Amino acid sequence: MIPLKRRKVSLAVNQQNDSCTFPHVSIFILERKMGTSRRAFLTRLGRSKGFLIKESYSSSITHVVSENNSGDEVQAWLDNQTGRDTSSSGHLLDIRWFTESMEAGHPVIVQDRHILQVSPKPNGDPTAMLMKSYACQRRTPLKHHNSFLTEALEILAQNAEYNDNEGRSVAFRRAASVLKALPCRVRSMEDLRCLPCLGDHSQRVIKEILEDGSSREVESTRQSEQYQAMKALTGIFGVGVRTADRWFREGLRSPDDLIRTGQQLNRAQQAGVQYYDDLQKPITKVEADVISDIVEKAVHAVLPGAEIQLMGGFRRGKEVGHDVDFLITHPEEGKEERLMPKITNWLEEQGLLLYQKTTRNSYLEKMDGPARASSNMDRFERCFSIFKLQKSAVSSKSNSTASAEDVGTGRESERPGEHHAEASGWRAVRVDLVVSPYCQFAFATLGWTGSKLFERELRRWAGQEKHMSLSSHALYDRKQNLYLRAKTEEEIFAYLGLEFIPPSERNA
Predict the structure, then answer these.
(1) What is the pLDDT of residues 246-288, one digit of tens each?
(2) How far, in Å, are 111, 490, 492, 498 from residue 137 at the CA level?
(3) Does an H or E element contain 359, and which?
(4) Can you tell me the distance from the alpha carbon of 235 to that of 253, in angstroms, rounded to the nearest whole number?
(5) Cα 448–450–456 angle (5° rounding)?
(6) 505 φ, ψ (degrees, to nearest 5)
(7) What's this model's pTM, rounded to 2 decimal places?
(8) Does residue 293 carry a catalytic annotation?
(9) Contacts 24+ apart (CB under 8 A), 115-120
């Protein structure tokens, strides 16, 4: 729940249309070189006189108004925002047209002195692609045409993370995201002309793969002792990059090395080592569906009427994943408070939890909203857990006859290192449970759907292009100093001036 003392009621997206006197003239005021305050003043002035002033640019705009910009600068800005050639879309006008219209009290006729001149574009390759620069502006399907390139770039991105170089990692991932969004396979460097986010390093790797079939840098990285060790160590539940790097520097290379040397481990890491083999295996959609049945039964047993949503990669259409995420809420505000301990108690009574750690909702405790710097970390009540999933339940689900009752209690105790998946009738599965207040559910749904890069780009777009702060809790408009309410993801995209991208196409 957003703290009451900081709440303000926002206007509906289309509320201005009801009082518009000149609906046939749709105006967009370009903030570039103008400044936020002046643009806000001109917007209020225009609306007070019955003009339709839009907050964001779209194909419905008929008049683009700019101050101290050339026609070429305005055209380039529009092309970059839309990812296409907008040279035939609407009037590009100097601020004089707007001020004259304000004085007249109605839209004046566009004359030559109002029009910003745009230089004719040279004849080029009509097949050259224009692509939007933010991943949250693009549709990125799960299956694409350039996995032979993106997998190589993602190895370099992962290795950069292992070396604590976040900037380089993000650069490689943005380059890979652009390639995923292309409608066809890249066959030459000429196909990459005019595409954003492709730095010199990424282009060198792509060029080498296109010419030689592989990249020496990528293959050297993949086979390096450090990369393989860091991949193995960070694959342990409860182990981050810094801990894995410290262990690597101490000569440790695998979970077996941790056991052999008697390394001090916290409770999460002990579980991670104990169930390492299981947790490295991909989770299938059928297994995720079985876990969904279990979670729904647990939640409804302790809070009837609650809503449960499968999140993460499975919501985006993936058939396999490495964990299963659930978002839980209740339509009656406040009913969800202190829900997680009740859920985990029910699961433990059924013998379904091998490990769990619950954290409280610190968002309310800190009274801290998204006016702070946006982050990919939220502060919901949550439970990081390892489930005990009976294989018989998965088999039954595959035959469309399973229910949560098929999952046995299986209360057998084990010592670390004793679980052998091949010999047992169950496997360990990572499951994250998150509880959200109903008023924040749309933002939580958007944040927990992913992909990681798509969410990062959404926050970057909100901050850099819209002067807003987006988190999994709320959207805060810094210019107007208010929280923007939303009940659906579509409303959030509308506030941000973005085309709605369905979950299945957020695989950046």
Answers:
(1) 999 999 999 999 999 999 999 999 999 999 999 999 999 999 9
(2) 34, 14, 14, 7
(3) strand 353-359
(4) 12
(5) 105
(6) -120, 30
(7) 0.73
(8) no
(9) 115/71, 115/91, 116/66, 116/69, 116/70, 116/71, 116/74, 116/92, 117/70, 117/71, 118/71, 118/72, 118/74, 118/75, 118/87, 118/92, 119/71, 119/72
CA atoms within 13 A on the CB side of 166: 4
What confidence tens digit (pLDDT) does each residue in 473-484 have? 999 999 899 999
* Helical pair 285-302 and 340-349, crossing angle rounded to 10 deg: 110
CA–centroid distance for 34 within its chain: 31
What single string gives the DSSP state of each residue in 264-293?
---HHHHHHHHTHHHHHSPEEHHHHHHHHH
Residue 313, C-beta contacts closer than 8 angstroms, at least 6 positions apart: 321, 450, 451
**What are the pLDDT digits (tens) for 374-412?**
445 688 999 999 999 999 888 887 776 444 444 444 444
Is 112 annotated in the active site? no
How far apart are the C-alpha atoms of 275 and 269, rounded to whole Å? Answer: 10
Q: Which of 79, 257, 277, 432 is catalytic?
A: 432
272: tokens are 């991670």
| Plot region of 220 (φ>0 → left; ψ -120 to 50 → alpha; else → beta) | alpha
DSSP code of residue 129:
P
| Catalytic residue chosen out of the listed positions 191, 245, 323, 378 | 323
Catalytic residue among 325, 368, 378, 477: 325
325 is catalytic: yes
Sign of the torsion angle spanned by Cα atoms 436, 438, 444, 445: positive
Q: Decide: 459 and 376 in contact? Cβ < 8 Å.
A: yes
Q: Name the CA radius of gyration of the chain, rounded.
A: 27
